[in-house]
């Protein structure tokens, strides 16, 4: 399973933009010893988020699932708010940001990266 969006993914993401803010849901499954690499990534992402007006809303380790499909194996969840889908796209296109994405890629075995929009928007 890929863990990073492709150019085609980003193009579709922007073309389906309903407008307004977006909260990106990140479900993360670490590779063996990947948690420390992912924490390095999150330690370094702050300036890139600030530059586009984004912010981490929540980050935490996942615990006992109460209702989940068999094989549910996510290790952590991260919610990041951006003022727009364009802001997210701008951040991931930043050449300096791309210098740290290797930490994320190396850390993850599987991931879900999904946009959400606030209800009523």
TrEMBL record:
Q: DUF1330 domain: which residues?
A: 35-110
What InterPro entries does its record include? Dimeric_a/b-barrel (IPR011008), DUF1330 (IPR010753)
Checking Pfam families in the record gives:
DUF1330
This protein is called DUF1330 domain-containing protein
Say which species the protein is native to.
Answer: Aeromicrobium phragmitis
